[in-house]
Amino acid sequence: MNSLKNRIKNILWKFWMYRGMQSLKHLKASAKGIERAIRETIHHKITPEESAWINRIEQIRKQFTGNPTPVAIRDYGAGNPDSQRSNEEMAHGTDSDTTYSEICLGSKPAVWALLLFKLIRAVQPGLAIELGTCIGISAAYQSAAQLLNKKGRLITIEGSEAIAGLAKKNIKSLKLKNVEIRCGTFKEVLPEILEKTTKVDYVFIDGHHDEQATIAYFDCLLPYLSPGAILVFDDISWSNGMRRSWEKISKHSDVELAVDLKMLGICRIS
Predict the structure, then answer these.
(1) For the chain, where do the domains classified as CATH 3.40.50.150 start and end?
(2) Which of these, 215, 204, 202, lies nearest to 243 by C-alpha position?
(3) What is the CATH number of domain 2-55+108-269?
(4) DSSP states of 94-156 as a string?
(5) Which helix (H) or strand (E) holds 22?
(6) Per-residue exposure over 158-168, b if at least 16 CB sit within 10 Å of its own CB, e if not
(7) Separation of alpha carbons 77 and 155, rounded Å
(8) What pLDDT digit, counting tens, does each position of 23-69 carry?
């Protein structure tokens, strides 16, 4: 039954990708990298060297899937779409007991992780930032793509010390040396990173699914983004608030183009 559900999900996800790709067909050349990344993801166009990295990363995912090992974490996010956590609760964090398997569910499914990988391959960013490391699956996909590009580095931020520790072990086991994992809240750590950088070429925002927080991170990042920088927003249909934040950001005067893939939103800065 789970296998059937996953196949149906993959069909729906690829339909959303196809719809988004079609919206780019008549845009300027600046959209071509994004369009190619989506197309290669839909058709699973993977080179042997790309496949080698992807297989290694997916082996890490398998080690966590169904793994009942308990772990205590602190969550600084919005919880679930019905949680209605206050700003104070999100700032303080919520402690909970969970398992490796449940944490792994927060990682991007393979088809979306592949899209991130292909985006990095296509746009070839120098400095990339990720907000929301989880166990490091998406970070591994993105940093492996940078290694294959022979260009770039990734800084990824995770709020929970326990989860950041797992991510560090996973990244180390893959021998990905172009990744820096920073532990702390996005609100605290992101400004510290930006103050020490020149320009940011790519950002994946995958955590703290709160309307006002998402807009605040966009506003915080905007002065530091290079011309043509790519921003990827996760779970833009997760809640009504996330849809509102996506609609506002995608219509911002500094956003040259925006692609709505239902689960992910991709923006290019002018």
Answers:
(1) 2-55+108-269
(2) 215
(3) 3.40.50.150
(4) EEEEEEHHHHHTTSPPHHHHHHHHHHHHHH--SEEEEE--TTSHHHHHHHHHHHHHT--EEEE
(5) helix 2-22
(6) bbbeebbebbb
(7) 19
(8) 887 766 768 899 999 999 999 999 999 999 999 999 999 999 999 99
